[in-house]
Structure formats: structure tokens, C-alpha cells
């Protein structure tokens, strides 16, 4: 909320939108794992999002439990109309999946560089 806004619209040049962008990322190869890495480890720029380059810093949320991060990911996948643009084979994120991804510690910069195209 503090950065991406309650409407998921973000703020141009500062905080990218999650509305539309999350479902688009989930449709990319490796997008699901990338989103988990963003939430667990944070991300820093420059990264291109919706034809705009963001060069900011986002903290990771490792303090959240596997269940909380799974719930957060599933909320993001459904909110702001994202549910209408999900890949046909989309399945809800599980706590086990988060635990598996949590074992990888990445810097926010390494996460940004791993953004799937
Ligand atoms: C748990 C809550 C959050 C979620 C799920 C989330 C999700 C995301 C996602 C999906 C991206 C786009 C990554 C990409 O496509 O490359 C992103 C980028 C970003 N987020 Fe967050 N975010 C959260 C909290 C925050 C907070 C609290 C801040 C502000 C302190 C923030 C600031 C940013 C910034 C600045 C970027 C762009 C980073 C760059 O320049 O590459 N986010 N976030």
C-alpha cells in the first residue's frame, strides 16, 4: 500500500504498477518464481516495467511467514482485475512453494537482473 498504492496503480517514475503487471509477469516463463524472489528479497533497478524504467529500491519481506507470502501472492494474482489476465494453467501459490524459494538468498540487484523478459 505505502508504495504501490491501495489500487495497485503505483506512482509513475517511482513505484511500478501491480495492477496488470502481476498477471503479465505470471504469464512469462519464470515469472512466478521471479515474483516470489521480488517479495522475499526485494528488487532494485534499473528494471523495465510497462515500457518505463524504474531505478529504485524495494525491500524484501522475509520477515513474513511462508503462509503469509503465499496469501499475499494469491491476493496480488486476483486483485485489480489481475484475475482476468492470468495464464490458463495458473494455480494458487502454496506455502511449500514459498519455503522452497526462500532457500535462495539473492540481493535486490541480482533479482532485478533476473527479471524474465
Ligand atoms: C509486500 C509488498 C510488495 C509487493 C508484493 C511488491 C511487488 C513489486 C513488484 C511485483 C515489482 C516489479 C518487479 C518487476 O517487474 O521487475 C516491484 C517493484 C518495486 N517495488 Fe514493490 N512490492 C511491495 C512492497 C514495496 C514497498 C513497501 C516499496 C517501497 C518501499 C516498494 C517499492 C518498489 C520499487 C521502488 C520497485 C521498482 C524497483 C526497481 O527499480 O527495479 N515495494 N514491487
Extract low-pLDDT stretches: none
Bound ligands, named by name, code or SMILES: protoporphyrin IX containing FE
Share in helix:
25-40%
Name given to the CATH architecture: Orthogonal Bundle
CATH superfamily: Cytochrome c-like domain
Structural class: mainly alpha
CATH top level assignment: Mainly Alpha
Distance between the termini: 26 Å
Strand percent estimate? 5-15%
Helices, by number, come to: 5
Please give the domain count: 1
User: What's the oligomerization state?
Assistant: single chain
Q: Residue-averaged pLDDT, rounded?
A: 95
Largest sheet: 2 strands, antiparallel
The 3D shape can be described as: globular
Q: Could you give the count of β-strands? A: 4
> What's the gyration radius in Å?
13 Å
What is this entry, summarized?
This protein is mostly helical.
What would you say this structure looks like, in words?
- With 117 residues, this protein is mostly helical.
- Helix content is 38%, strand content 9%.
- The strands form two sheets. The protein has a two-stranded antiparallel sheet with strand order 1-4.
- Helix 3 packs across helix 4 (95-102).
- The protein starts with 20 loop residues before the first helix and ends with a helix.
- The model has no long low-confidence stretch (mean pLDDT 95).
- Bound molecules: protoporphyrin IX containing FE.
- Protoporphyrin IX containing FE (HEM) is lined by residues 2-4, 15-16, 18, 22, 25, 35, 38-39, 43-45, 47, 49, 54-59, 61, 72, 76, 112, 115.
Amino acid at each position: 500500500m505505502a508504495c504501490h498504492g491501495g489500487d495497485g496503480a503505483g506512482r509513475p517514475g517511482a513505484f511500478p504498477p501491480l495492477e496488470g503487471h502481476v498477471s503479465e509477469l505470471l504469464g512469462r516463463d519464470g515469472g512466478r518464481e521471479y515474483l516470489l524472489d521480488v517479495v522475499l528479497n526485494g528488487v532494485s533497478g534499473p528494471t523495465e516495467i510497462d515500457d518505463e524504467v524504474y531505478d529504485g529500491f524495494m525491500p524484501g519481506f522475509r520477515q513474513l511467514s511462508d503462509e503469509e507470502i503465499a496469501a499475499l501472492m494469491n491476493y496480488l494474482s486476483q486483485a485489480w482485475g489481475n484475475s482476468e489476465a492470468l495464464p490458463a494453467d495458473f494455480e494458487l501459490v502454496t506455502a511449500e512453494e514459498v519455503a522452497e524459494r526462500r532457500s535462495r538468498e539473492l540481493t535486490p540487484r541480482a533479482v532485478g537482473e533476473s527479471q524474465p523478459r
